[in-house]
Amino acid sequence: MKYILVTGGVISGIGKGIIASSIGTILKSCGLRVTAIKIDPYINIDAGTFSPYEHGEVFVLNDGGEVDLDLGNYERFLDINLYKDNNITTGKIYQHVINKERHGDYLGKTVQVVPHITDAVQEWVMNQAKVPVDDDRKEPQICVIEANSSFLFQLGGTIGDIEGMPFVEAFRQFQFKAKRENFCNIHVSLVPQPNATGEQKTKPTQNSVRALRGLGLSPDLIVCRSAKPIEMAVKEKISMFCHVEPEQVIFIHDVSSTYRVPILLEEQGIMKYFKQRLNLPIDDQPSDLLMKWKKMADRYERLLKVCSIALVGKYTKLSDCYASVFKALEHSALAINHKLDLMYIDSTELEHSTEVENSVKYHQAWHKLCKADGILVPGGFGIRGTEGKLQAISWARAKKKPFLGVCLGMQLAVVEFARNCLNWKDANSTEFDPDTKNPVVVDMPEHNPGDMGGTMRLGKRRTVFKTENSILRKLYGDEMFVEERHRHRYEVNPELTQCFEEKGLKFVGHDTEGNRMEIIELEDHPYFVGVQFHPEFSSRPMKPSPPYLGLLLAATGTLNAYLQRGCKLSP
Fold first, then answer.
1. Domain ranges of the chain
2. Are 463 and 510 a contacting pair, CB within 8 Å?
3. Backbone φ and ψ of 119, nearest 5°
4. Interhelix angle 70-78/323-335, nearest 10 degrees
5. Cα-flanking dihedrals φ and ψ of residue 518, to 5°?
6. Helix (H, G, I), strand (E, B) or coil at 488
7. Radius of gyration of the chain, Cα coordinates, nearest whole angstrom
8. Helix H segments across 144-286?
9. What is the pLDDT of residue 149?
10. Which helix (H) or strand (E) holds 293?
11. What is the rounded CA–CA span in Å between residue 571 and residue 567?
12. What is the DSSP letter of 148?
């Protein structure tokens, strides 16, 4: 097993996850089997109880793991399926060690950070690195480990959060346990360029590397992030002061799309370096997979046609809150040769209260909604902004605007239909109004109202189509069932579905028992679809998600032609 540790310096949020994913993509393109592990220093057991404004979206895995969004990057880039244990947190490690102590595994000993916590980190990494993540179920050969930069080297080399130091010490020890020929450290750093001087500054990177060395880890490669391409003199300066060869300094400047990053890494000889440094049995020439990435990046940059989608949600101030939704839309837009124009609309700004308080903001939000080619209402929790989402859904239904509702978006589509088509004016979800006389959305029987973490309906579940006359079934290749990932506590009330179907809102998909409503489609509408699952989590750059692809096709007026061609994209 070969291990590649990716650490970060200067500041967080400089694309370390994309770089780690891109490195894995390059290695996979060489025919190697690659897995990935993300380490986060927070004491939470997992990401499930975070607000999206904390660390971005909560990504859901097949096994129901609620994890950091970077695991979504790994899955999309590498086309693999990871597990909850591929996301290590301080909480998981300490819980594991405390459980062993209670079980008597350390009987007679004082349990300490060193060696017990550090040993647990190393054992976890070694065990999880062996778990197959590809469809062929073979053991991986390379494990890319991304360490959250918040516990390493921020702001000129000062040490970051104290809870992360056991991980630093664990990998200091691990490099000797794994042996030099099996362990490689890549340090991602920022090269800022102040507007006042226009000069690219290397001092933050120098301090970051110095701090890293002081903790016992020496970088084999330094990946420098910058706004603009870095000059050769800067590369030579970093090489000299950071004690690495010039070819060990890699530059990644801001690019038009993340699809370009693996190409930039490959062009700077990273494949050749890995072959020599880790003694890998690979060729120096790029493979067909990498050539596909290059063609995809070239095609993305040449797109001229634009399709605009309005995303109506409550976490619109940070784009990472809907990272997988954005990627699923982008994958679908690229598949039909369109550039995506995603307009984020805060759902509260569509509500009457905003019209009273700030009419300019209200009318701007409605102007964006009205000019969009399609409307998407994603998942979410809580009552804030729901009335604005209902207004957007009502507009999409009445104006026959292409619409996709995901999770809460589907539930609110049912609520809107009940209020305006069935004339059940107080129809609601029991999440928002426990005493409603028309509970069209109810809490799940299997939900545990005690603990919050890990108690939702999570992970990959089967959805069975109950009719052949379904747009979504055709988009999925006329399959009898699909398996997608879920994350919800509430669902459509199965006792009331007959009333909806009589008025044209069809429940075309349900779970294997037939009790849980999974897919809705509205008759006499170009594309009005709701899904209880989260199809964005399984979208891939070269395999777009069918519900999202359907939305983009309908928004560009090409859905019928696509279906008539037997769901084949035009060249």
1. 2-196+210-298, 303-565
2. yes
3. -65, -40
4. 20
5. -110, -30
6. strand
7. 25
8. 165-178, 203-214, 232-241, 261-267, 270-277
9. 55
10. helix 288-302
11. 13
12. P
For residue 117, the 8-state DSSP code is I
pLDDT in tens, 76-121: 999 999 999 999 999 999 999 999 999 999 888 899 999 999 999 9
Q: Say which residues have a Cβ less than 8 Å from residue 558's Cβ, sequence separation at least 6.
A: 336
Q: Which CATH architecture has domain 303-565?
A: 3-Layer(aba) Sandwich (3.40)
Amino acid at 20: A
Asked, as a colleague might, if the bond just before 115 is cis with ω within 30 of 0, I would say yes
- Looking at the annotation, which residues are catalytic? 407, 534, 536
Cβ-contact 370, 385 below 8 angstroms: no
Cβ of 296: how many Cβ atoms within 10 Å? Answer: 18
Whole-number Å distance between alpha carbons of 548 and 376: 9
| CATH architecture assigned to 2-196+210-298 | 3-Layer(aba) Sandwich (3.40)
> Please, what sign has the CA dihedral across residues 413, 419, 422, 427?
positive
Q: What is the SS3 string spanning 182-212?
A: HEEEEEEEECCCCCCCCCCCCHHHHHHHHHH
State the alpha helices, DSSP H only, in 399-530.
Answer: 408-420, 471-475, 497-502
Q: Are 311 and 322 contacting, i.e. CB atoms less than 8 angstroms apart?
A: yes
Residue with tokens 């996709």, as numbered in its chain: 404
Cα 438–chain centre separation: 35
pTM for the model stands at 0.92
For 528, which DSSP code?
Answer: E
For the cut 80, the answer to whether the pLDDT of residue 568 exceeds it is: no
> Residue 271 carries which side chain, given as an amino acid letter?
M
Identical fold for domains 2-196+210-298 and 303-565, yes or no, is yes
- Residue 470 has which token pair? 């379904």
Which helix (H) or strand (E) covers residue 88, if one does?
Answer: strand 87-89
